[in-house]
Description:
heterodimer; A: 118 residues; mainly beta; six-stranded mixed β-sheet; B: 115 residues; seven-stranded mixed β-sheet; four-stranded antiparallel β-sheet; 11 strands; 0% helix
Amino acid sequence: AQSVTQPDIHITVSEGASLELRCNYSYGATPYLFWYVQSPGQGLQLLLKYFSGDTLVQGIKGFEAEFKRSQSSFNLRKPSVHWSDAAEYFCAVGAEEYSGGGADGLTFGKGTHLIIQP
Amino acid sequence: DSGVTQTPKHLITATGQRVTLRCSPRSGDLSVYWYQQSLDQGLQFLIHYYNGEERAKGNILERFSAQQFPDLHSELNLSSLELGDSALYFCASSVLAGGLYNEQFFGPGTRLTVL
């Protein structure tokens, strides 16, 4: 079974500073990887996704992530954060369609809570 | 706005009761997934329906059940509710049944409070 680890429960960054949120996954085959953001009281919004091909993927709101198979990582980065980026960030991995006999849902990490200091 | 709608937005009920949560997928999407988000368990996959048929089960309790109707909307039924069932329940939809390029779009969630 697949699993996702987000080692940082909370991260505090100054506005305008760079950001990197860590994500490590465990999965036997090629993973499908996602980053979602959840603002307070809101649903989950997809920031970016990796299915195959170029290991550096660009997303919305200026975010990017790099897939590193050798390190089983898919870290999220942003060069300069804005106060509006304060939210909960979730990394997720998707299973192949017929793994285990069915089309399983996404497996999520526990999330990283991002705090922006003025 | 993802295009996925969920009703109601909030639900408060008592232990032992039964509730139904409703989800309408994005136009054209055939898959509906249900997830539970709680403080102690995080975000967990419950169940997946594709074009009216159950495709996969995750950590769904036997007291919970779901179905997808011919118009593709889905309902999640929670019965014999316990305090621990208090959580945010998300529905997500996608075009595909799964696999490569399957991108899920999430609704705003239903917050269930069991008193």
